[in-house]
Amino acid sequence: MTEEFNSLVGHFLVSTPQMPDPRFAEHVIYICAHNADGAMGLAINRPNSSITMAEILKGADLPVPQNTLPQIHIGGPVELESAFILYLSDYKTEHQLEVTSSVSLTRETKVLEDISLGKGPATYLFLLGYTGWGPGQLERELVEQGWLTLPANNEIIFNMADEQKWKAAAMQYGIDITTFEDEIGYA
């Protein structure tokens, strides 16, 4: 008999002030994959000011659309040269991971081409790199109180200013993350 696995796909990991790894201070990570083999997520509140979406498109020899383009994000410290597009699932492509019924993830270059032509997803984040955990690693980190797990909210992912996402992700459940402390209760 196999042990039941509680996947965190479609959830936020919100770093607490007790986060032992300073690289993840005030991070909100959206979990895209989680199973017994490990987990993969994308930091949704870490803008990258060293490169623009227009530069990404130009670098791929694609036209730059006239509409306002979103800021590039650092999805995490792993494979910073790898690009990911996280978007609302009203846009469909052949190679996509349906994270939830409303959010999908892809690395397909056709989506970048569609964005350049104004035919891509209307709402998306373009991210470089990702955050990954090996088997059991995320579960150990959760026990150590470095992360708070909460159901994700598309409004926070796609429509909120990056500097507000960390507090807002916790506050939607009545948690003031700035004063969050380890508390042990006994019944």
UniProtKB/TrEMBL annotation:
Pfam families: DUF179 (PF02622). One of its GO terms (cellular component) is cytosol. InterPro entries: AlgH-like (IPR003774). HAMAP family: UPF0301. PANTHER family: UNCHARACTERIZED PROTEIN YQGE, UPF0301 PROTEIN YQGE. Belongs to the UPF0301 (AlgH) family. This is UPF0301 protein SAMN05660330_01630. It comes from Desulforhopalus singaporensis.
